[in-house]
Design a protein that fits this description.
It contains six helices and no strands.
């Protein structure tokens, strides 16, 4: 691999020291983003309706069996978000998030256009691509996966 040459060379060591922290920050923010969404679906927190109200909304949108999907997606968001945040089972969980966001972008939101302000596919596409990057890269140096010496 070719040596990196920086335009402002004194910043090179700073970037290198912060590299693993940057990956931890991205992975933790991605997992942390989903936890409150899962808490809405599972526990009716943060203004959410809990599993029954979530299932009713899914049923209205044709997502059946709606109660299964309410529990599955709530669990993926809440518990999967925690796993991504801590970097445990990072790649398999990232694969599940990729599938979830791919479906959200191509099925659930496609008729609403592109922009997230109208409920469009912009945010699910971004979240799907981030999940794909996490799937490829794994938990990184600062993760439970690396701590226990097991990665998928």
């Amino acid at each position: 691999m070719a040596e990196v040459r920086y335009f402002v060379s004194p910043l090179g060591p700073v970037y290198q020291r912060l590299d693993q922290l940057a990956w931890l920050l991205l992975r933790a923010m991605y997992g942390g983003f989903f936890i409150p969404h899962g808490a809405q679906k599972l526990f009716a927190m943060f203004g959410g309706g809990g599993p029954i109200k979530t299932a009713e909304g899914f049923a209205r949108n044709g997502l059946e069996p709606s109660l299964f999907w309410a529990y599955y997606l709530g669990s993926l968001e809440f518990f999967g978000g925690m796993l991504i945040l801590f970097g445990l089972f990072t790649r398999p969980v990232a694969a599940l998030f990729f599938g979830f966001m791919f479906v959200a972008a191509t099925w659930a939101n496609v008729d609403r256009g592109y922009f997230w302000t109208k409920g469009g596919i912009e945010m699910p596409i971004l979240l799907a691509v981030l999940a794909l990057v996490i799937l490829i890269r794994g938990g990184g140096a600062v993760s439970v996966d690396r701590l226990i010496g097991r990665e998928f």
